[in-house]
From TrEMBL:
Gene3D superfamilies: 3.30.1330.30. InterPro entries: DUF1694, Ribosomal_eL30-like_sf. It holds the Pfam family DUF1694. The lineage of its organism: Bacteria, Bacillati, Bacillota, Bacilli, Bacillales. This is DUF1694 domain-containing protein.
Length: 149
C-alpha cells in the first residue's frame, strides 16, 4: 500500500467517511441543494393546514421523496405524512442530530433538478375579523323600528 492510501484510511477511521458539501446536506436534511424541488420552514409546517403547492408538487414529482425534520413535533408533521400516504409518495423523517436545520420539510429528487426558487412564500396571517356588536342603544332602536312595522 502506498503512504497516501494508508493516511486516507486512517483519516477516514478517525473522522468518518468524507462527505461532499456537508453544510449543504445539514441544511437540506441530508440532501444536496441541486436535488431540492421545494422547502418549507418549520413555522410553515406548524401552520394548521397543508400548503396546496406541496400536494401539487408531490403529484408532479412522483419519484421525489418528502423529507421531514424529525426534531419537530409529530403532530406538526402528521398532516404532511397523511398527504404523502394519500398520494402514495415516499417520505422519510430525518431525526439525525447532524441534520439540524431551520427547514421543516424538503421535497427532494434522486437526481439534480436545479430550480432557482425552492421556497414557498409564507401565508399572510389572517386577522380574526371582529364583528362589532351593536351597542345597547342601537339594539333598542332596532327593536323599536321592528315593532313599528
Amino acid at each position: 500500500m502506498s503512504r497516501v492510501t494508508i493516511d486516507d484510511y486512517l483519516q477516514e477511521g478517525i473522522h468518518g467517511k468524507k462527505v461532499l458539501k456537508p453544510e449543504e446536506r445539514k441544511k437540506y436534511l441530508g440532501t444536496l441543494r441541486e436535488r431540492v424541488v421545494v422547502v418549507l420552514t418549520r413555522a410553515q409546517v406548524r401552520e394548521a393546514t397543508t400548503y396546496p403547492e406541496i400536494a401539487r408538487l408531490l403529484k408532479e414529482n412522483y419519484k421525489a421523496t418528502l423529507l421531514l425534520n424529525g426534531a419537530m413535533n409529530y403532530s406538526d408533521l402528521a398532516k404532511y405524512i397523511a398527504l404523502a400516504s394519500k398520494i402514495k409518495a415516499p417520505y422519510k423523517i430525518i431525526a439525525s442530530p447532524e441534520h439540524t436545520s431551520e427547514l421543516g420539510l424538503v421535497l427532494a429528487s434522486d437526481t439534480a433538478v436545479d430550480k432557482d426558487t425552492i421556497t414557498i412564500d409564507q401565508r399572510p396571517k389572517q386577522k380574526a375579523e371582529k364583528r362589532k356588536r351593536p351597542g345597547f342603544v342601537s339594539r333598542f332602536i332596532n327593536k323599536l323600528k321592528k315593532k313599528r312595522n
